[in-house]
Amino acid sequence: MYQILKKRVLTPQTKLVVVRAPYVAEKAEPGQFVIVRVREEGERIPLTIADYSREEGTITLVFQEVGLTTKLLGLLEEGDAILDLVGPLGIPAQLPEAGVVVAVGGGVGVAPIYPKCKEMTKRGVRVISIIGARSQELLILEDEMREVSEELHVCTDDGSKGFHGFVSEKLKELLTAGLKPDEVIAVGPLPMMRATCEVTKPFGIKTWVSMNPIMVDGTGMCGACRVTVGGETKFCCVDGPMFDGHLVDWAEAIRRANMYRDEERIALERCAGCGGEKHV
Ligand code: FES
């Protein structure tokens, strides 16, 4: 069992938990993820490792309550435990040692961007970050991101804080004004990552995205997490989760992400009264 040592409510639907997982913390690198199961008969979901401490033997997970499993996870409090957790999985992000990188994080995608910025800043890379959310109350990890960025731009769709518009629009503004990053890293909802790639393509800037498809085993055997990249089928869990965004088949990825929307709704409706049932 993986005990929750600390819990923070970042927004009404986004939670941060620090979990005791010494073996995972020992090996974790930016860009990797874990697969968790909240209850015996529950599904397995991938969650990016948002931070880790080898000294304390902990990993930090940030999740948005969108489906039944994340809602059940959100009910766990400090002192409770996650039933099981496997990782670190996936290929660590190939982060540069120098130069200028623009890190773009949308919504809960700011969490996976954070450890990458932290590591790049440690290496001496100039990190310019753009983070965004629908509105000010939904922005997460702003202070943490400021600490690991040379420059931080905050965007909200409704204009309640910072730049009024999408992160991709802010990026376009900076590039048009003459910013020339060596690469861009974007993490967030699929439409946001696609829009970011559309912005960087005409400028010829290498753009990495972090895909987060449905996963089952997380070890390359089931095929649930497949994405098409450069015309080839890749398994996100073993070949990713970072890919060259200019080569991703976005239409297919978006279609696949919505495949189980009805089942998810039914599961949530069936469990409408499960508010008190934590797990097992
Ligand atoms: S989750 Fe099964 S192959 Fe990736």
What does this protein structure show overall?
This protein starts with a strand and ends in a 10-residue tail after the last helix. Mean pLDDT is 91; it is low at 276-280. The protein has two domains: 2-91 and 271-276, Beta Barrel (Elongation Factor Tu (Ef-tu), domain 3); 100-210, Rossmann fold, CATH 3.40.50. The protein has helices spanning 22-27, 68-75, 110-123, 142-147, 167-176, 190-200, 236-239, 250-257, 261-270, and strands at 2-11, 14-20, 33-37, 44-53, 58-64, 81-82, 84-89, 100-106, 126-133, 151-156, 163-164, 183-187, 206-210, 226-229, 232-235, 242-244. Helix 5 packs parallel to helix 6. The strands form three sheets. A seven-stranded antiparallel sheet has the order 6-1-2-5-4-3-7. The chain has a seven-stranded mixed sheet with strand order 11-10-9-8-12-13-16, with helices on both faces. The longest helix is centred in the middle third of the chain and has 14 residues, at 110-123. With 280 residues, the protein is of the alpha/beta class. It contains nine helices and 16 strands. It is globular, with a radius of gyration of 18 Å. Bound molecules: FE2/S2 (inorganic) cluster. The site of FE2/S2 (inorganic) cluster has 12 residues, from loops.
Element layout with pairings:
Layout: E1 2-11, E2 14-20, H1 22-27, E3 33-37, E4 44-53, E5 58-64, H2 68-75, E6 81-82, E7 84-89, E8 100-106, H3 110-123, E9 126-133, H4 142-147, E10 151-156, E11 163-164, H5 167-176, E12 183-187, H6 190-200, E13 206-210, E14 226-229, E15 232-235, H7 236-239, E16 242-244, H8 250-257, H9 261-270
Parallel strand pairs: 8-9, 8-12, 9-10, 10-11, 12-13
Antiparallel strand pairs: 1-2, 1-6, 2-5, 3-4, 3-7, 4-5, 13-16, 14-15
Helix pairs in contact: 5-6
The structure holds FE2/S2 (inorganic) cluster.
